[in-house]
Each structure stands twice: as structure tokens, then as C-alpha cells.
Amino acid sequence: MLALIAIILIWAFYLLLIDYEFTINKQIKLNHWCGFSYVLFVSQHPINTIVTRHYADELSFPAVTLCNFNSFKASYIAANNITESQVRYFREMFNVVPSYFKLNRSQAEVQQLDAWIDSLDIMQFVTDAAFTCEETIRFCQFSGEVFDCCAEALPVLTGHGLCWTLGVRTHSNGTRYSRFAQYFQSSDAGLSAWVNVHSEDYTDFYIPGSTQDQGIRINFHLPHSPTTVDTDGYAVPPGVHTYAYLDVTKYISLRSDNWGDCVNFPLPHYNVYSYEACVNNIIASEIWDQCHCRLIFQLGDTPTCKPKDMITCVQPFASDQLTDISVQRESYGCWNPCEDWKFQVTMSYSSLPKSRALKFIAETLNITGENARENLILLDMSFKSLDFFTMQQQKATTITETLSDIGGQLGLFVGASIITMFEACGFALVKIYYNCFWLKRKKSVPKQTLRKVPSNRSSVTHDSTENKELTSL
């Protein structure tokens, strides 16, 4: 019994033992109850990340999205008698966040602008007013093989207006995949493109919410994932030769039903799950619930938001709620994909050649005008090397390891094993049975009344006394 009490006391002491740790400044800090810390540690599904470097014979090239900083051609605006006020008002349809420079309009002017917007085919206007692919991307080659840039370029609407995505093909089921693959390591082994920004056709008046920069923004992403050129785009000015070197990392996460938190399910308007697509759908859903419209660059067939909707509903809602969606994405159901690729870009620049060489290049590309240096950009994009890193999640512990760890700590601190535990349990059951059942049964047995029988010694004494009396008689 004393041994059992000692084991229980030692085990209780182990459970209640306080774990102290030394912080960086050598101060002792109360951390947690170490007896329960391991249980809490396991219940939180701890994960280890295994980093591995792989060498490949080829790497699939990512999709490349290019956007001109100028959304509307000045020539189109002038040819269609569109006023500056109308362009500014229309541009507000792209602005989720209100511009710092607000324009004051009268009620009559707002009504006229709304009537003009209602008369437009919005998507047709955006397409016609923007630079076409043939006007923007003048020459393309991949690993020395020339191809038609715009034959398979995909138009996409973003916060910068109409953009173009290169290097993507589409399956019959709608799934997009990479068109190119790089087979050797060289700056000439990737995608090369000449781009004309048409700086002479830029609008020269201020448009709220749009930058007045000259040049393009480029973004590298997976073919099936929406572009993030608004937040992850790289600006390239005209008159430079830009070298973009890519490093790629593959992330493999554990599924939500297997210790992890990754998901992989189809989304509306997207055949393959990605975090960016999930966030876009959540934002579109929240804006539709609040304002009953969708942003002009969001996918769907619901009515697009008019500038009045943007000013009165979308922008106030965005200031309060859209930040919460990005921060608390898990509560909205947007988790990491189970397999993802991320591209890290290193960019360097050099000036384009001098006037005679540049003039020859401009003539070769059928570009007219004396200001070729203010318009042309040469992009060379390639993988830095044919290797990549994988960051794969693995369980930090398993059931077997957990039981082994608990057993090792019991043996170290208590001197107990699984046999000891069975013995202690058996001993406890016996004691419980004895105290609760055996003693109770013993008390229930009735006491028997026994007749007192004289002992032999007293009877012998009595007989000898009687004999003495007879003798005397």
C-alpha cells in the first residue's frame, strides 16, 4: 500500500512540476506546467519542415503577366470625344481604396456621369481604350525559338486595367498549364520579349487612383493561379534591358484531415485551388453581399459596380472589412494549398544600346518614332539554375513516439513500466474490492449465541470435592 501511495505521489509531483526556462537576458520565467505541456504540445498537431534541394532536367516556366501603367490611350480618348472628367470618373471603378486626392463634383455632374456610364458597354470600353497585345508586346522568343507573342496571350483585367499573360495554354477542361520549360542554365534559355509602352500615347492629366509612371509591371505566377500584379508586381521603366532571374520553391503541406491545415477543393471560376483564388472569391462574395455588385476586374456574371457604388458602398466597406479578410483568412476558409510553387525574383537593369543600334532594333520591330529609348523595354527572364527547394511538412511526433516518450519519462522519473502500471491497477482493484465488498459482506453475517461450556479443569475440581464429602460421611 505504501508503494502505491509513493508511486501516486511521485507521478502527481511530476504532473505539477513547474518548468522554468532562462530567457535571453538570463531572467527566470515561469513557463507552463511541464506535466501537461507535452499533452498540449501533441494536441496542437506540431509539424516539422523538411527542406530538400532537388536538381531537375527541366523546369516548367511560370506564367508572366504584363501590365502597362497607362490604362487608357490618349488617342482613343480624343477620337471618341471623351472628357477628362469622364475618364477620371470611370477610373474610379478600379479603385477599391479611395484616392487621397478627392475630386468634388456637383450633383448634376454626377448624374450626367452616371448616365454616360450606363450607356457604355464597360468591358468593350476597357478593351478598346487599352493598348492591344500587338501594340504592347512586339517580339517574343523562348530559348532562341521565336513565337507569336499574342497568338496565345490571355487578356486579364486587374487594378491596372487590361493586362496580358504569356506562356499559358488551356486544356479542354479549362485547366491552364505552362507552355514552356527551361532545359539548361542561361539567361538566353528563358523567355525574352521586346515591349513598347507607347509613352507618347499616355494621358497627360491626373487620374485618381492610378499612377502617372511610365513603364510596365510584370508578375510571375502559376498558370492556374490568378495574377497578383497589383501587390506582387515588379515595375520596369522604359529604356532599359531588364534581367529577371527566378528561384523556385515547392511547398508540400499536410492535409487538414491528416494533422495539417491545407485544403484542395475546386472554387467558382477556378479549376484548381489556390490561396489567391480563394481570397478573390471571398472578397467578391463579401462585396456582393454588401453592395450587390462586383468589381470590374473580378470574375463572374453579376452586375459590375458603377463609380457611384464604389464611392458610396465598396470603398467604405473595403476600408473596414477587406483588411480583416486578409488577416483572418482562416476564418473565411482560405487555407494554404496542399502543393504550391513560389517564385523569388532577382532583377537587374542596364541601359539599352546607343542611338544607331537602337534605331536598327526599332526598325526591325516595325516601331516608328524618334523616341525609341523612351518606349522600348527588353525583358530577359529565366531560371537562375535548374534546381529547386522543397519545404515539406511532416508530423513532429506520431502515436508510437508519443507513447515511447511518455513511457521513457515514467521510467526515468517514477521507475515505472507498463507492467508496473498493470500491477498498480490490479493492486488498486483488489483494495477497492476488499474495502467496498468484502468488509460489507462480513458485517452482514449475523452473530451466533454460544452456550458456555465449563472447562475440564473446573469439572475435575468439582468431582474431587464431592468425593471428599462422601468419604467424610
Structural features, described:
- This protein is α+β, with helices and mostly antiparallel strands and 473 residues long.
- The protein is 37% helix and 24% strand.
- The protein has helices at residues 2-15, 34-43, 74-79, 84-91, 107-118, 122-129, 133-136, 229-232, 275-291, 307-327, 355-364, 399-413, 418-444, 456-472, and strands spanning 18-22, 28-33, 47-55, 59-60, 63-68, 137-142, 145-147, 154-158, 161-166, 168-170, 176-178, 181-182, 191-196, 216-221, 234-236, 240-252, 339-351, 376-383, 387-395.
- Strands 3, 6, 7, 13, 16, 17, 18 and 19 form an eight-stranded mixed sheet that branches. Strands 8-9-5-14-15 form a five-stranded antiparallel sheet.
- Helix 9 packs across helix 10.
- It is elongated, with a radius of gyration of 41 Å.
- The protein starts with a helix and ends with a helix.
- Residues 16-35, 457-462 and 465-473 have low confidence and may be disordered.
